[in-house]
Amino acid sequence: MEMKRSIEGLGLYDCNDCGHVNMFVEGFHDAMVLYAIALHEGMKNGYTKKNGTEITSHMWNRTFEGIAGQVSIDVNGDRVGDFSLMAMTNIEAGSYEMVANYFGKNKTFQLLPAFSSDHFTLERRQEVPEKEKEVENHSCGLGVSALTGVTVGAVLGAVILIAFYFFRKNYRITIQRRTRGEEPESMKHHQLREDSIRSNFSAA
Question: Basic and acidic residues bias located where (predicted)?
Answer without folding.
Answer: 179-197
